[in-house]
Amino acid sequence: MRKIDLYIIKKFLGTFVYAISMLAIIIIVFDISEKIDDFVEKNAPLTEIVFNYYMNFLPYFINLFSALFTFITVIFFTSKMAFNTEIIAILSSGISFRRMLRPFIISSTLIALVSFLLGNFIIPETNKTMMEFQYTYLKDDREVKNRNIHMQIAPGTHIYVETYNADRDLGRRFTLEHFEKGELVSKLKADYAQWDTATGSWTLNNWVERHVDGKREIITTGSKKDTTIALTPKDFVINLDDLKTMDWWDLRNFIEKEKLKGTSNILEYQIEKHQRIAFPFANIILTLIGVAISSRKVRGGIGVHLGIGITLTFSYILFMQISTVFSANGNLQPAIAVWIPNIVYGLISYYLIRRAPK
Where are the chain's structural domains? Predict the structure, then answer.
């Protein structure tokens, strides 16, 4: 590694850390001004505000804006190098343009790796503390499935609940069906099912059970019956921020569990899974585009480069949003929807690098 590599890496990472730190301070100031009334009204302790909320908010913020600020950083200091004819001096010394890209790729790969670790392992843990603070002092976005609930709780075992009362842990018009090789083997119906916290089981009231053995049926009835099934009141609760608290392994296990249940919005979880892998690559792709655009000295200097660069960045973000919407509401596979922007803009970066000054 040459001195010029260390020089570019130092400029790259130093400018990135400085820029995103300044924006983080600004965002925190505005966030405090917006939430100060809630903090005072709920008597939120200062230590919890600082350490449980804002200290855990920073990793999420840094990862969210990492690609954008990586791009702005590259545009800013590379344009400055081009304006000071440093790029010309580097190329004139016998270093090829591709060789000059090495420190840029090293720096952006390091940021991409940090972004991957943040999004898949660190942020889910910090979000748990941050969201607990939000539920206590700011908001509670938990929702409950309460009507016409269909769920597969094990292979071939399905439950149906007409209405569910989360406050009483009570499900009305409860049905439990078991199938083998596509044929109904047993069906258990009850007027309502009550969760017993002491035993960790469901108490069925006014139940009717039907067993099918070929052409023979056995029907039994009763007023009360305790049954243990792979279902708890938590399965009826939807936390809108659940995905943000799941790490790499938890998210994959959750998706498999939801597939078994037959959850209708499984695509949203799959999109989240692929985005956590695809998003860090945006740092590398946007870095290459930024170097290709800003390495040429033009009239107007940094302003022109920033204008072109920010336009490309926001078009990339817009492209990603559109493709994920098509996946969530259409027939586009989540993996394809998430990776299409990276592929398209990867080709754009290749074209721009080929056209860059050599």
Answer: 3-139+266-355, 144-235
